[in-house]
């Protein structure tokens, strides 16, 4: 009785790493060439938005994607899963094995050895290394070029998603205090389409994007090219496809390779941009900050 169990199909996945660790990505890669466009769009959305997939029903996912719940179910089945429950189980079982943030945290914890003081030292030392890179003439020139490209913009549109989004909102706040109109975009799914409707040649686009660029950010860059909008890219992948379409690039490390992502370097680069823009239009900056002070005085 034991022999069939050892030689049956249930033992095969252990020999093929992608199956247990990322079955969805593997199935999508195998099936996408023959999938209808509508189902392919759903499949890519599910692959990129796994937390939403785990948390929402087929009807809710359909509303997010802009399709029917029946199409969501058919897509899941076309990818080789019995249904949403089967797909969710596959994703949940692979989270601990395939999650890059989890892997990077484990690697960092191994370096630290369980000491809080050592953890603080690692973070500080990593930022010191990144700052040393930013102090090089080539890195400074990247920021100078970005400032020159952004100054005089009728509006600066900032694209950011995930952990970079709060940095973008902070940047928008600072720009607003200096009188520079700014807007943050980066919704997932169909919401991004609405955010792109008013993109015009009066704008400048500042993109925060790390690692391999997703479909959404490539769409943003494509729309910018159509509208004649120059692009400044802040990234740790200066040789990516997205970088090749950008007018200025700021290379900002997110820490050490295969370790937790740290955003201090990005924040410093963004604050340098803000100060450069503030100085380029000093009268507007002083006028807006004076107005801010007057409003605060009224509020007590």
Automatic annotation (TrEMBL):
Pfam families the record matches: HTH_6, SIS
A Gene Ontology biological process term: carbohydrate derivative metabolic process
InterPro entries per UniProt: Homeodomain-like_sf, HTH_RpiR, RpiR-like, RpiR-like_SIS, SIS_dom, SIS_dom_sf, WH-like_DNA-bd_sf
Domain of life: Bacteria
Keyword Transcription listed: yes
Keyword Transcription regulation attributed: yes
Protein name: Transcriptional regulator RpiR
Origin species: Acidocella aminolytica 101 = DSM 11237
Taxonomic placement: Bacteria, Pseudomonadati, Pseudomonadota, Alphaproteobacteria, Acetobacterales
């Amino acid at each position: 009785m034991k022999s069939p169990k050892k030689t049956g199909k249930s033992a095969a996945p252990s020999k093929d790493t992608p199956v247990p660790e990322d079955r969805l990505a593997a199935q999508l890669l195998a099936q996408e060439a023959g999938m209808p466009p509508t189902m392919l769009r759903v499949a890519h959305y599910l692959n990129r938005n796994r937390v939403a997939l785990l948390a929402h029903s087929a009807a809710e996912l359909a509303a997010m994607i802009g399709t029917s719940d029946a199409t969501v179910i058919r897509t899941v089945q076309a990818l080789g899963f019995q249904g949403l429950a089967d797909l969710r189980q596959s994703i949940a079982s692979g989270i601990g094995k395939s999650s890059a943030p989890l892997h990077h945290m484990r690697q960092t914890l191994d370096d630290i050895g369980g000491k809080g003081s050592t953890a603080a030292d690692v973070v500080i030392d990593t930022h010191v290394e990144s700052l040393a890179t930013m102090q090089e003439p080539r890195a400074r020139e990247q920021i100078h070029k970005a400032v020159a490209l952004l100054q005089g913009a009728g509006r600066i549109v900032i694209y950011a998603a995930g952990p970079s989004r709060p940095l973008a909102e902070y940047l928008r706040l600072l720009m607003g205090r200096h009188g520079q109109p700014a807007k943050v975009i980066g919704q997932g799914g169909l919401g991004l389409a609405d955010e792109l409707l008013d993109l015009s040649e009066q704008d400048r686009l500042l993109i925060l994007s790390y690692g391999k660029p997703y479909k959404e950010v490539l769409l943003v860059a494509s729309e910018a090219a159509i509208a004649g909008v120059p692009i400044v890219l802040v990234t740790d992948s200066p040789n990516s496809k997205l970088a090749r379409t950008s007018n200025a690039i700021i290379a900002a490390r997110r820490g050490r390779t295969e370790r937790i992502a740290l955003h201090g370097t990005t924040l410093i680069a963004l604050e340098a941009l803000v100060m450069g823009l503030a100085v380029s239009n000093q009268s507007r900056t002083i006028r807006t900050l004076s107005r801010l002070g007057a409003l605060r005085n009224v509020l007590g």
